[in-house]
Amino acid sequence: MASMNEVAKRAGVSIATVSRVLNNSESVNEETRMKILKAIKELKYQPSRVAKRLRSKSGAGNLLGVLIPDIQNPFYVDVLRGIEDVAYQNNYVIIMCNFSQDEKKEAMYLEILESEAIDGLIAAPAHEDDQRVKKIVRNGLPVVCVDRGLKGMDVDVVWVNNLESAYQAVSFMIEKGYKRIAHIGGLPTIPSSRLRLEGYRNAMQDHGLELDENLIIQGDSSYASGMQVTEKLLNMKNPPDALFTGNNLITLGALEVINGRKLQIPKDIAVLGFDDMNWSNALNPPLTAVRQPAYEIGKRAGELLIQRIKDPKRPCIHMTLNSELKVRHSC
Amino acid sequence: MASMNEVAKRAGVSIATVSRVLNNSESVNEETRMKILKAIKELKYQPSRVAKRLRSKSGAGNLLGVLIPDIQNPFYVDVLRGIEDVAYQNNYVIIMCNFSQDEKKEAMYLEILESEAIDGLIAAPAHEDDQRVKKIVRNGLPVVCVDRGLKGMDVDVVWVNNLESAYQAVSFMIEKGYKRIAHIGGLPTIPSSRLRLEGYRNAMQDHGLELDENLIIQGDSSYASGMQVTEKLLNMKNPPDALFTGNNLITLGALEVINGRKLQIPKDIAVLGFDDMNWSNALNPPLTAVRQPAYEIGKRAGELLIQRIKDPKRPCIHMTLNSELKVRHSC
DNA sequence: ATGAAAGCGCTAACAT
DNA sequence: ATGTTAGCGCTTTCAT
Asked: Pairing relation of β-strands B324-326 and B288-291?
């Protein structure tokens, strides 16, 4: 790979001038500019992003970190797609850090990202009291949180109206006539899990339905937990007639168990999932679900981050996107 | 962030000595080592991976590029997980480049990766004649291909026995008694699409079944193409009694159409998919599928890449993993 | 309008 | 065993 020096030599100018035309800064004589452009072309010169990053400490490195809890969850894949599109359009590139709900791994990745001199970070922190992410924000790195905020910390957040969405979904179930609606929640440490649970509780109460605490079980947000909890619920002497599942993976786990028992959805048990998937119509019956605009969450987060990199002083924004109840046939 | 210089000053030594203890190279007096370690701790010093990368041109940068055609395809997500695990264990970090089957985007990303001075690349090239990836290999960057090779080029590849797997799958369908088995293929430019088609053809012929060319349709490997082609097939005057779908996304698209028409699987039409998903049991009925060991493909590729980075002279390996027919209830 | 030179944080000769 | 020094490829004053 040719370096700026070689370009400068070939064009018979100094590297400073080359740098100037590259950053189309200030006034450069049209003639010399042409000479330089020619040399660049001939040498197939491409600037080293590494050197650039080393030199200019802020925002010019075109490198973003993305920290997500679980790449196997389709929700985060879609978020990632949104981020990636914005990043790509702005000549940024992404270091992907999937910490698989493992806080040790999260800590490692965060250290590495710092030492990679990223220009900004999009993160779904392990929980809202995540000291590691908080420290990074305090250190002045531009950060945008997705799906979860940071308690007591002013930071950009893009998320969805979890409580209201859950409330609306459960209300829908109630109106459909379901009485014993169980909720399989995600990790209680995750704020969105708690909000969805709260929405569930509120809806039940507001509609005068009895709140059977045995019907509320929180797992660890995984497929396996979806299976386990569903088993448990279905084994009850008085099992639920409907399931409100707390995320994508839980929903899928629940479906596996229900299918395994040859139960009919929604006749024997109805299912309404939080989180939609692009292929929810491929399920049989098609899944009724709360659709978070995952791609858009990622896109917005990317935009906010790039804004913040350019203008670190801009006041923080909490952007709440609306989710949508996709009524299909499982409830 | 503290720099090596500050550490050196605090410990009262030169930066060279600091560098030595960091790379636990050569002999350093135990006493000074302690002093330095102490200073490092006190300053919370972390080496800059950027500076390191700029300086030492080969393999020390701990940065890997991953180039994949479609992050929305669960197969690639699992591959990515495998790569990521190996990378993480070896202190490498990943720049994720999803080119969404768009060759312009692929080209852009490849350029950027070069200028990021990555130590190695794992790629699923757009096709086997991909000049851009070929050039990178020729330039001497360590590269491992997954899922697809590079025609006329000696390069490490990790893939699956596509032809045999398809052959086996279709034979299974035939033995089950299906006669009019349709194949919805992926992009003909992708080698694995062609191999799976060939496996299909061979199986049909070897079992003395008529090869109705109307039953063989190649799309673009997407969910949408899965839907379109399935529509077309089901609208035939003499529709197929079984579907052999060419990848994950196609399968899901096909299922949506089949469900939409209230057709029973496998009674009205059987489905066998190439590519399994972690949640295939959540489908109703559970999907019979050819399971590629996607995670392991990623893991192996990661291992091969790190080996090659350490030893660029090692002869190339074509590693063919076995896929497995998961017989469930859709066929 | 252009060049010279310092320096980002580190590695790797080369000295001592 | 440790220090000095010359870069890696670039940006950015400060001169001219």
From this structure: antiparallel
Q: Are residues A99 and A174 in the same domain?
A: no
What is the total count of domains within chain A? 3
Contact between A283 and A322 under an 8 Å Cβ cutoff? The reply is no
CA-nearest residue to B253 within chain A is A282
CATH number at residue A39: 1.10.260.40
B252 to A93: CB separation less than 8 angstroms, yes or no: no
CA gap A189, B188 in Å, rounded: 47
List the domain range (segments joined by +) for residue B8. Answer: 4-47
Per the CB < 8 Å rule, is B71 touching A53? no
Entry field: residues in chain A: 331
Interatomic CA distance for residues A128 and A109, integer angstroms = 18
User: Is residue B57 a part of any domain in this protein?
Assistant: no
Q: Are residues A281 and A170 in the same domain?
A: yes
Contact yes or no for A78 and B84 at CB 8 A? no
> A277 and A172, same structural domain?
yes
Q: What is the pLDDT of residues A165-206, one digit of tens each?
A: 999 999 999 999 999 999 999 999 999 999 999 999 999 999
Domain co-membership, B155 together with B169: no
Q: What residues of chain A lie within 8 A of the CB of B48, using their CB?
A: 54, 115, 117
Query: How buried is B285 (Cβ within 10 angstroms: 0-12 exposed, 13-18 middle, 19+ buried)?
Result: middle
Q: What is the pLDDT of residue B56?
A: 79
Q: Is the pTM of this model over 0.70?
A: yes
